[in-house]
Amino acid sequence: MNVRRTAAALAASAVLGALAAPAASAGTAAPSPSAAKLPAGLHGDKDPTYDGVWRQSIALLAQDTAGVTPSAEAVDWLTGQQCDSGAFAAYRADASAGCDAKTPVDSNATAIAVQALAALGGHTGEVRKAVGWLKSVQNEDGGWGYLPGSPSDTNSTSVVAGALAAAGEKPEAARAGGKSPYDALAELQLGCDADAGDRGAYAYQPDKKGALAANADATVAGVLAGHGKGLLVDPAAGDGKGGGAPEPLECGSGADADRTPEEAASGAAAYLTGLLEKDGHLTSVAPGADKPVPDHSNTAEAVIALAAAGHPEAAEAPLAWLEKNSAEWAADNPAGLGTLVLAAHATGGDPRSFGGTDLVKQLNATGPEPESVKAAGADAGEEGEKAGSGDVSVLWWVLGAGVLAGLVAGAALLLAGARRKRS
Q1: CB atoms closer than 10 angstroms to residue 387
Q2: What is the mean pLDDT of the chain?
Q3: Which residues contact 373 (CB under 8 A, 6 or more apart)?
Q4: What's this model's pTM, rounded to 2 decimal places?
C-alpha cells in the first residue's frame, strides 16, 4: 500500500535522523544498492530499505498460494531478518549483527512476515515469537501504530489483525487497556455524523484536530480487518456469487455504538464499492504530487477485501481493470506480482493466465529458483514438478533417444552381417 510504504520511509527517516544520519524522505528513494550487494535470497532487485521484508513476505505467501514451494534460501532470508524479540524491521542489511534498541522494528513488517510464515508452515517458533511481540506493543486503545508506541492507525491495526488470524488466534481476543483492535477501528471509521457519501470509510489516523478524513487505502484495510482476514483469502465455495451488494452503515439511535465488526466492514465495503464504480480502480496522490493517479496496489487489495467480505461480484470490474492495466506496474515487482496472484486466488481466478500473463512465472523469476512448482492444472494433492524438472525431462529424452539409436545401430549391424553371409 502507498500509505504503508510512505509510513515506512517516514519512520526510517525519523530513526536515521535521530541517529544523526542522512535520511531519505518519503518522496525521495534512497540510492539503489547494486545487485551484487543485495542478498541472494531476496526477491526483487530494487532498494529494499523500506520494503524488503514486506515484498519478500508477499512473494512467499503468493508462491505458496499458487502451489509453488519457495526457495529455502528465500525463506531463510526472511526468517533471518527476525530479531530475538520476535519483531521484524522493514529491512536489515546485516542480519548477523543482531538487533538493539535503535533497530527500527515495526508492526507492519512483523505482521506480514507472520502471515507468510504461518501459511508456509514449519515456522511455529518464529510465528509465536512475532505474535508475542505484536501483543506486547498493542496500544491502550486496542490498536497498533506503525512503530511501537506511535498512535494507532487503521492500516497497521488491520495487518496485525490479519497476522493474529493467520496464526490461529482471534483478533478480538487481543486486548490492551481492556480494548480490542475493533475498538480502535471503531474510532477510526466515519460514522453516521459524517457526510452521507463518506459514511463507512476509514481514516488512516485522525488529523491534528481529531477529525477523520475518508481514505481509500485505510478503508480497504478496514474491510479485511472487520472480517478477520489477512491478504490470503480463499475463494468462496459454491457458485462464487456473493450475497448482493454490501450494506451501507445503518444509522439510528445508538447505531455507531452497537455496530459489530462485520457490520462496520460491510459499511466500509459499501463505501469502497462506490469508489470503484466510478472508473473501476482506486487512485492515490503520491507525496509531492497534486494529481491522483491509478493505484494498482490498493486496487488489487480492494479486490481481496471485497472477496473476503463475500462480494466477489463487486470485485469483477477492478479485477478486469487490473488484468488490462497492471502489466507495466507489476513487471519485476515481487510485491505487485504477489498481490495480483493473491487477488486472482481470492476471486477464484487463474494467476497463470491473468490478462494473458503468467503471474506465477514472473513472480518466480524475481527471486531464487523455487524448490518445486506445481504443474499448471494439477490437483492440489498432486506432486509438483521440481524446479529443475525441465532438465530431468531433457535427460530422459536424451537417454531414450540414445537407446533408440542403439537399437537402430544394432539392427543395422545384424542386417550387414546377414548380407555378408549371403554374399
Answers
A1: 17
A2: 85
A3: 67, 68, 69, 360, 364, 384, 385, 387
A4: 0.84
